[in-house]
Amino acid sequence: MTDRLSDKTLGTLPAPIDDVPRYDRTAVTPGIVHLGVGAFHRAHQAAYVDDCLAAGELSWGIIGASLQSASTYDALAPQDGLYTLAGRGSDGERLRIIGSIQQMLVAPRDPAKLLDALTDPRVRIVTLTITEKAYLRNAAGGLDADHPGIQADLADPSKPQTVHGFLVEALARRRDAGTKPFTILSCDNLPSNGATLHRLLVQFAELRDSDLAKHVAGVACPSSMVDRIVPATTDADRQRVSTILGVEDAWPVMTEPFSQWVIEDNFPAGRPQWEKFGVEMVRDVRPFEEMKLRLLNGAHSSIAYLGLLAGHETVAKSFGDPRIHSFVQALWSEAKTTLPSDAGLDTQSYIAALTERFDNTALAHRTAQIANDGSQKLPQRIIGSAIDRLETGNSAEHLMLTVAAWIRAAELRGTELPTGHFTDPLDSKLADIARRGGSAVETVAAIFDLAGFAKGNVHRPDLEAMAAGHLDLLRIIGVEATLAQFEAGRTSH
Ligand code: CS2
Asked: Which of 31, 236, 263, 391 could in theory staple to 60 by disulfide, Cβ–Cβ 3.0 to 4.6 A?
């Protein structure tokens, strides 16, 4: 098979394709720059924008930029930005071709080109899926001003490396050219993601000059909650999809049927009519975000770390392990009580839907994929709930076993788990701590310090004590017996 999926071959695709772009792609103009054009963006925001383009809103094409690797560019540029989105559920697979990405850029290859796109007056929104670690927060939650990327961007603003450097330089140039600022929409799994990004950008701009900081402070950064499970594409997926298409798609994206996007409706420079396609435009995203982070992502991390320790390769296998399954139910019982009770959240139905989604065996969602970047994820997924539980005099044992399982899985890399099986931005320091071979108490204290978990919180000693007790169990009796002990504890209450 030599032909690639492209504008030229689009008309030759066979009938089993459920949907293809039915709009004139040559008439689309750029309205959105997306930073971090990985699989998640392509399964989620790009699909909603594709719906808007198909409805005739042709001024919202996406320029997709990778901030690090050129792999997405290399796969999609020869395909005119087209790719297959495969929705996989118990009733089979639905293939859809997405056409909303009209141009691709690789920031490190040509930062000036990305700055040009960001200063294009037609671009009115910048969306981001850059993952938690790219926000470059220090242990106290502020901007990590010592980060080499930040230092480089302060030294030479015209060749940015970080998202902060790109956005602030683009905003400065737009201001100087009399172009209105774009709206910045974070789509990452962080609490108050828009407000968090806004704060970090202002801090960064402040390091350049205070007038610029004032200007950046006036830029709208609405928060949003994004939800769709997107396992990494495998070679088998590439082959299967390409065989069905009859042309090669170098990077199809796998996902589940479920999709949700809740957005704070604050777009001074305009926006597509996303609400026509199921997007919830609301005044306050916070309750939705918290429910998602604490119930979905918290359980995901738990399933991932316990699953890794128990030898389960995928979420469906780990969640299908009866001990892990009932552990996660108990984790949910702890976490759900921390959610706001006056926001109309239906946690019961949410948990029922999650149970079905995690059971989806058509998705081979690897536990090692979710295990990445634990130091960046656990604060909003687990630690926040645990603090709230202690605050109200309740226990947080299940939540803290998840933290202990992360620490245990991290220290087993290189022995029982392959080296680099999952990674973390704090890896070199985590490895130093593991090498010291300290007691559970010492190890947990060092890791809480390093990652800034519960920094300055009165409950931190209790959280550490719980995590250390659980880490001891995992080290001495192993994950199976630890889960059995938790189970026995639940039934005896
Ligand atoms: C997962 C998320 O990898 C992870 O950490 O928990 O990517 C999760 O699949 C998405 O947030 C679902 O919306």
From this structure: 31
DSSP assignment of 191-227, as one string? Answer: TTHHHHHHHHHHHHHHHH-HHHHHHHHTS----EEEE
Nearest to 34 by CA among 26, 42, 23: 42
Q: Which residue has the tokens 């926006």?
A: 271
Against a cut of 0.70, is the pTM above it? yes
Q: Please tell me the residue having the least CA distance from ligand 1 atom 8.
A: 229
Using one digit for the tens of pLDDT, what is the confidence trace for 380-419? 999 999 999 999 999 999 999 999 999 999 999 999 999 9
Q: How far is Cα 149 from Cα 415, in angstroms, rounded to an integer? A: 33
Q: Give distance in angstroms: CA of 151 to centre of ligand 1.
A: 30
**Residue nearest ligand 1's atom 1 by CA:** 370
Helix (H, G, I), strand (E, B) or coil at 425: coil
Query: Contact 466/400 with Cβ under 8 angstroms?
Result: yes
Ligand 1 atom having least distance to the Cα of 373: 5
Looking at the DSSP bridge assignments, the partners of residue 88 are 93
| Separation CA 331–CA 426 (nearest Å) | 26
To test the ligand 1 pocket, which listed residue (188, 228, 370, 380) has its Cβ within 8 A of the most ligand atoms? 370
Q: What are the backbone dihedrals phi and psi of residue 433, each rounded to the nearest 5 degrees, phi first?
A: -65, -45
Ligand 1 probe mutation, 295, 296, 302, most atoms within 8 A of CB: 296
pLDDT digits (tens, 9 = 90+) for 5-19: 999 999 999 988 889
